[in-house]
Design goal:
single chain, 410 residues, alpha/beta, Molybdopterin biosynthesis moea protein, domain 2, Molybdopterin biosynthesis moeA protein, domain 3, six-stranded mixed sheet, 28 strands, 31% strand
C-alpha cells in the first residue's frame, strides 16, 4: 500500500492548470480569474441622486422652511437640460444625474409642493446631501478584482456595470463519466439475476458538476473490448478528463484495465485508506483518466480525495480540497488498527458550544450508499483505535453542518 499523500501528489502533478481563455461574463459564474480586472470607467459614471426629491443649491435651504421655484423634472435615464440657479430646484428621481448648479438633494419626504412650480423645503441640507459622486463605487484605473478571485453573482454584476463583456479566466473542465459491465442496467426495469442498477455514473456526474465542471454522460459500456474502447476513446476526444468506476482492484479481471494499459500510461494503486483503497490514474493522449473503485461509497470517497482536487486545480482554484475542521465526536468512532487512514461517514452539526459535533451516519460498509447520502462530512481517523465519545476528530465537510453557523468556503 502507498500513503495517501503520495497518491495525491502523483495525480496533482499530472493535472496542471488549464490555459486561460477570454470567456464571456455571462458564462463565467464560478470561474477563477486568470488576470486582474481594472476599471476602464468610473462607476457611477456621473454624479446622481440617492433619493427621490429635489436637487438644490444647499445654501438656499438656510433658515428653512424656504420656498424654491421648480425649473425641471429629471427622471433616471434622462440628462438635465436646465441649470439650477439661486432660489431654484429641480424635481429629481433616484439615479438621475445631478443638474448643473445643484450641490445637494432634499428627500421628497422633507418637502411639500405648494404650487405647480414651487416647492417648500422644510429642512436645511449640507453640500453633497444624498448625492452619489461620479466614481463613488469604482474609479478609472482601479483594480476591481485580482487574479485568483472566484467569480460570484456579485462579481458578474460589477463587471456588467463596467461594460466588461469578457474576462481572462480558467475554463471549466469538461468531464466524461462512463460505467462498464454487463451486470449494469438503469431505470425502472425488472432486474434479471445478477443485474444491478448503475448508481456510480449518476453520482460521479453530479459530483463533477458540483465541483464546477461541465459533464458528459458517456453511458454504460457492455463488457466487450470494442464497446469499452469506443466509450473511453470518445471521452478522451470530447472531454478534458474521464472518470470510470470499477475494475481497479488487484484481483479484478476487467477489460477496463486491459484497455487502459494498452492505450494509456496508467498507474494502478493500492492506497492506505478505507474505503477507496484501490485507485487508478493515468493519461490517455494527455487526457487524465481516473479509475475509481466500483463500490459506490468507495467511488464517492475516492472522488473527494483525488478527482475533485485535481479537477479544481485544473480550473485555477487555490482551495482545491473540502474544508477540514476540528470537531467533537458525540458517539463512538472506533476502528481497528490496519495501517490505513479511515474516512468514516458522519453527520456534522453545530453544538451549543459553537463547535462542530459529529455522529455516525449509519453503516460504514463501502456498499452503504444510504449512509453516505445521509452524511455531510467524513471523519478522518488515523491508524489506531479511533475516537471515543467526547474526543476531538478532524472532519472533512462535504456540506454545511446542521444547526446554523458559517460553512467555510470550498
Amino acid at each position: 500500500m502507498i500513503p495517501l499523500g503520495e497518491a495525491r501528489r502523483h495525480v496533482l502533478d499530472r493535472v496542471p492548470r488549464r490555459v486561460p481563455a477570454d470567456l464571456r461574463v455571462g458564462d463565467a459564474l464560478g470561474l477563477v480569474l486568470a488576470e486582474d480586472v481594472k476599471a476602464g470607467e468610473a462607476v457611477p459614471p456621473f454624479a446622481n441622486t440617492a433619493m427621490d426629491g429635489f436637487a438644490v443649491y444647499s445654501a438656499d435651504t438656510a433658515g428653512a422652511p424656504v420656498e424654491l421655484e421648480i425649473v425641471e423634472t429629471i427622471a433616471a435615464g434622462h440628462a438635465p437640460t436646465v441649470t439650477v440657479g439661486r432660489g431654484q430646484a429641480s424635481r429629481i428621481f433616484t439615479g438621475a444625474p445631478m443638474p448643473d448648479g445643484a450641490d445637494a438633494v432634499v428627500m421628497v419626504e422633507k418637502t411639500e409642493t405648494v404650487a405647480d412650480a414651487r416647492v417648500r423645503v422644510d429642512v436645511e441640507v449640507p453640500v453633497a446631501n444624498h448625492v452619489r459622486p461620479a466614481g463613488d463605487d469604482l474609479s478609472i484605473g482601479q483594480t476591481v478584482f485580482e487574479a485568483g478571485v472566484v467569480l460570484t453573482p456579485g462579481h458578474l454584476g460589477v463587471l456588467d456595470s463596467l461594460g466588461v463583456e469578457a474576462v481572462a479566466a480558467y475554463p471549466r473542465m469538461r468531464v466524461g463519466v462512463v460505467s462498464t459491465g454487463d451486470e449494469l442496467v438503469e431505470g425502472a426495469v425488472e432486474l434479471a439475476p445478477g443485474q444491478i442498477r448503475d448508481s456510480n455514473r449518476r453520482t460521479l456526474l453530479a459530483l463533477a458538476s458540483q465541483a464546477g465542471c461541465d459533464v458528459v454522460d458517456l453511458g454504460i459500456a457492455p463488457d466487450t473490448e470494442e464497446a469499452i474502447t469506443a466509450a473511453i476513446r470518445r471521452g478522451v476526444e470530447e472531454c478534458d478528463a474521464v472518470l470510470t468506476s470499477g475494475g481497479v482492484s488487484m484481483g479484478d479481471i476487467d477489460l477496463v484495465r486491459v484497455i487502459l494499459d494498452r492505450i494509456g500510461d496508467m498507474r494502478w494503486m493500492q492506497i492506505a485508506i478505507k474505503p477507496a483503497k484501490p485507485f487508478a490514474f493515468g493519461l490517455v493522449e494527455s487526457t487524465p483518466v481516473f479509475g475509481f473503485p466500483g463500490n459506490p461509497v468507495s467511488s464517492m470517497v475516492s472522488f473527494e480525495l483525488f478527482g475533485r482536487p485535481a479537477l479544481r486545480q485544473a480550473m485555477g482554484h487555490e482551495q482545491i480540497d473540502r474544508p477540514i475542521v476540528r470537531a467533537v465526536a458525540d458517539g463512538d468512532l472506533g476502528r481497528r488498527s490496519d495501517a490505513k487512514v479511515h474516512f468514516a461517514r458522519v453527520v456534522a452539526s453545530y453544538g451549543g458550544d459553537g463547535r462542530v459535533h459529529v455522529t455516525s451516519s449509519g453503516g460504514q460498509g463501502s456498499h452503504h450508499l444510504g449512509a453516505m447520502a445521509a452524511a455531510n462530512a467524513l471523519a478522518i481517523l488515523p491508524d489506531g483505535e479511533g475516537v471515543e465519545p467526547g474526543g476531538d476528530v478532524d472532519v472533512m465537510l462535504l456540506a454545511e453542518p446542521a444547526g446554523g453557523g458559517s460553512f467555510p468556503p470550498s
